[in-house]
Amino acid sequence: MFGKSISDLMIKPGKSPVFETPDSFGLDYQSVTFPAKDGVELSGWLLGESTDQVIIQSHFGVQCSRCGYTQEGKGMMKNALWTSDIHFLNHAKYLVEAGYSVFMYDLRNHGDSGTGTTPWVTWGVEERKDVLAAVDYVSSLPQFEHASIGLLSICMGAASTTFAYGLEPALKNNPKVKTLIAIQPLTYDYFVAAMGLPKFLIDAGNEYNHKHRDVDLTGDSFLPYAKDISVPTLVIQNRQDPMTNLDMVQQYFDDLQVEKEMLWLDLEKKRGAAYDWIGHNPTPILEWFQGHMGLRRAAI
After folding, report:
1. Which helix (H) or strand (E) holds 29?
2. Which of 4, 13, 171, 179 shows its CA 20 to 30 Å from the CA of 228?
3. Considering all CA atoms of the chain, what is the largest pairwise distance in Å, rounded to the nearest integer?
4. Domain membership flag for residue 32
5. Domain presence at residue 299
6. Segment 122-167, tens digit of pLDDT
């Protein structure tokens, strides 16, 4: 019983609805669907009118969708991540206003995307196929024939992107992808440990994952693949984040073999603080994308 409960908490997709749409933020958009290489149908939005620069967002996992996180339906856990809803359309709006197109999509088993070949969250292993699919889809659109692509990858989105760089040569070799912002990359082991669970519960959850859900999340996860990222990378991390291990984040940054920068934040002691922060602090996000995607955009 303990094992299933821990497993459900960590890898069973929670309520991750697409709870708002871009028009409520004054943004025009197009709804699209596109396939991953294993046939899973993914769902997304394309915002903005730029034909030469596009940002692809990969969101965090379990209880999130392309538009962010809603407390509705989360019960007693609704304040564990953050104290209110997190609106990713806030940063989409300032990116569009700065002159970028933005592609926001739901990872498999989240939002309006289809069920994966496994119905469980794999913390980036399977979800890497979705990152590749999003990049390939955007790259294939006629309006983006000559576009530069930037990746905005959040938590499990960052893990998925890192796995994709290590395991999907098509991403590493795509010349359109120019840069990455990785926001709070997090391995499963450190996340579980940071929650303060006793070892017997962690072991029970891992055993249940392996025996009943054919998912093994022990080990170094995506960390060995940080060295395979081939584009300039900005890593953003809240020092007060209670659900991570800062040495692990530092290791991820240290292992990057590209031009890189670390942005440490001092925010509230909640995991979601940094996710909310990016929606209200455009300067570092825009400066990084503007500095690594060729053509300079509108003034910040």
Report:
1. strand 29-35
2. 13
3. 55
4. yes
5. no
6. 999 999 999 999 999 999 999 999 999 999 999 999 999 999 999 9
